Amino acid sequence: MSWESLLAFNLVLMAAIASPGAALLYFIKTTVMSGRAAGMATGLGLGTAAALWTLAALLGLETVFALFPWTYTALKIAGAAYLIWIAIQTWRHARDPLPEAPARHGKSALSGFLVNAGNPKSMLFAAAVIVVVFPQGLTAPQIGLIVLNHFLVELAFYALFAVALGSAPARRGYLGLKPVLDRIAATLLGALGLRLLIER
């Protein structure tokens, strides 16, 4: 595993975190409605669940690939199709307003954790990105580094976003840039999907 692979993983990960979905919508609503501290706590829960999905994908893929080598190609094709589908949907709905995030009860961190833990798309995304970015045969320390890295990137993103959303001008600015941000994310995700299909 190279540092270039880790950097590529982080770039795609940040694009995925920033693209509207259940996690980001819930985070935005919590931060806007309850303040920065609640937003940061929600981000902690979201990041923990997402990192655990990555761990599950890494451990599961290593075992499956060892037992059934043909699943590597099958997963590449399925992952490519999934990423391209996300890219198309994100591009198509770039100008749509943000829908109302569902209200949830309980502590912010636990609620954030449950939002991502109950979203199997997080694991599908992690598996698709891992296949194209990282080589097979990762060691335990490398897997640990990837999972820790994922958690820290999520935590940093949500902490910075919580601070940024603390002001009304910043909130208005985000909504104004949503079409541009969505299309950047769609381009990155679509390019990754095409790379999955092209590379042997």
Helix-strand pattern, N to C? HHHHHHHH
Shape: globular
Residue stretches low in confidence (pLDDT < 50, at least 5 long) are none
Percent in helix = over 70%
**SS content category:** mainly alpha
Regarding quaternary structure, what we see is single chain
What does the largest sheet look like? Answer: none
Our Rg estimate from Cα atoms comes to: 17 Å
The figure for the number of domains is 1
> What do the pLDDT scores average to?
79
Question: How many strands in all?
Answer: 0
The amount of beta strand, in percent, is under 5%
* Termini separation: 18 Å
- Count the DSSP helices: 8
What's the quick description here?
This protein is mostly helical and 200 residues long. The protein has helices at 3-18, 22-34, 36-67, 70-92, 108-117, 121-133, 140-164, 168-198. The chain is built from eight helices and no strands.
Tell me what the structure shows:
The chain is mainly alpha-helical. The protein has one domain. Helix content is 82%, strand content 0%. It contains eight helices and no strands. The longest helix is centred in the first third of the chain and has 32 residues. The two termini are 18 Å apart. The model has no long low-confidence stretch (mean pLDDT 79).
Topology readout:
Elements: H1 3-18, H2 22-34, H3 36-67, H4 70-92, H5 108-117, H6 121-133, H7 140-164, H8 168-198
Helix pairs in contact: 1-7, 1-8, 2-3, 2-5, 3-5, 3-6, 3-7, 4-6, 4-8
List keywords for this structure.
200 residues; mainly alpha; 0% strand; globular
